[in-house]
Amino acid sequence: MAKNRTRIQAALPAPSPTLIFADQIHGADTEVINQPPSAPPQADALVTTEPGWMLCMMTADCMPVLLADPDNRVIGAAHAGWRGAHDGILESCIETMEQHGASREKLHILIGPCIRQPSYEVDGAFYAKLVHERSANSAYFEPVIGRDDKWLFNLPAYAKTRLQRAGVVDRQLFDCGLCTYREEEMLFSHRRATHRQQVPCGRQLSGIYLHG
Known about the structure:
The protein is α/β, with parallel strands linked by helices and 212 residues long. The protein has helices at residues 2-11, 82-87, 89-99, 124-133, 155-165, 190-195; strands at residues 18-20, 30-32, 45-48, 53-59, 63-69, 74-80, 108-111, 121-123, 141-143, 150-153, 173-175, 204-208. The protein has two domains: 2-115 and 155-208, 4-Layer Sandwich (CNF1/YfiH-like putative cysteine hydrolases); 117-153, no CATH class.
């Protein structure tokens, strides 16, 4: 892992940024980075206005979400699985960015590689939880044919709706469209590795930094 991080830094334009990581806990806390931390903070989103520090998220099915207000030079990075998205990690990241000078309507937001609906099977309890909270959430589920009380969940669509309810419009959202489960030659997937009894598996690094 250390070797791969060195390769990432070497591939970036000089001067290469300092990589800043979080101790990701599937929560909804955002940490502001004013100086390189002595240890990764327990958080699932990072925000900074400082150039030269790459905010990094590690994922293997959850969504990496990168956010930037280039005009006001504020950036953020978030790790959003279903739990984090449900508990408000994306809204927390945006609110923290605003507190440090970002403008919500100027944000550019990228959803990176994550597990997509055709590969994301969940159980009936998960379906019932989200639909009980908001009946419109049923739109993010499709029944699994031939498997009682099993559903396919559309995590990116759910996250996009959360962002739209927070005031983000479609033109601000970019989705790479890649599925971690299906792109096995290119991407790691915890669920795929579990199904094949190949755990532990690797992780993708998604990062963003202010240059100069």
